[in-house]
Design brief:
seven-stranded parallel sheet, 373 residues, Rossmann fold, globular, 2 domains, 13 strands, alpha/beta
Amino acid sequence: MLTHHWLVRPRGGERVLAALCELLPRAPIYTLVHDAAALGGEWPVIHTSWLQRFPGARRHYPKLLPLMNWAARRVRLPPVDLVVCSDAAIAKAMRTDPRSTLICYCHSPMRYAWDPPISIEYARTLPLPLRPLWPLVTRAVRRADFAAARRVDQFVANSRHVAERIRRWYGRESVVVHPPVDVPEEPFISPGRDSFYLCVGYHVPYKRLDLAIAACQKLGRRLVIIGDGPDVRRFEARRARDPQAALNVTLLGWQSPESIGDYYRRAAGLLFPGEEDFGIVPVEAMAHGCPVIAFGVGGATETVVPGVTGVLFQEPSATGLADAMLSAERMRFDPVAMHAHAGRFSKARFLAAMGRVCREVLERGGGGVRVSG
């Protein structure tokens, strides 16, 4: 059986869940909120919580965070041997049968509650009368999340960075299994790259799209933005007020995987200026021969090899990113070496590692796993 925090759009966590569906092909999915139209794709049977009936839940689910623990605890899962929970929130609070073994693949502990800068940013999205209550709500959410974490038989972290968060916030140890990345069978040898830079994903404030825009303006480089999110909408509003704002920026919205692959193959580089838990997008870019210019913290330190697959910068500013872009432009990157490095994060390796974790946890009767994925 599989559980997941919410299924509302196809992002990194949902790609991990799709791979877990291959590992457990007959397993139903239990989640808090599901938006079938926005998610797309073919999925097994999906069961939702009572939050699904909440007006506007599909669109405004982050606003329901204070209710999510209550909703999750009211989901009673059927008795099965194994429940694999794919979680970045409170899905692990769903009520398992006492005889079930619970493995949690943790994309990150809930950053809205545990990570102060992101918690503050979330509070700014609340109506003004509710903002003073957010510290009290946060403490309650953290207590509930910590209690849910105690029920997990085995944590699997998507990176060493997240494993450290699990240790710090939950007091639990983890096995590390990196997320699956679709890697082309052969490296792409480009005859030459275009001069534009690329940002891909669901753009929320901590991903620092603002730095990418500012750095490209500073250097006079073109920036192509694929995806959507609050920061894209914020930029669209800015451009509506001032049509001359950032004329070097092109907004494409979500694109097909084939189209994104084409942009990876042509771009001068992928800009990744935020602190990410892991980051599937940079590995995808490397797999297509596209160098990555990333902030040197978090998951990027586990995927970007300086001078081989990209450049890491340490100062989280437009100047720091711009300097790293100039450094990358002076380098030559070998697409064969980049493709080989990306292969370390393939779906086949993910499935093999997760299969091994599941088998060992079941063999130990819910005890911890000693091997690393």
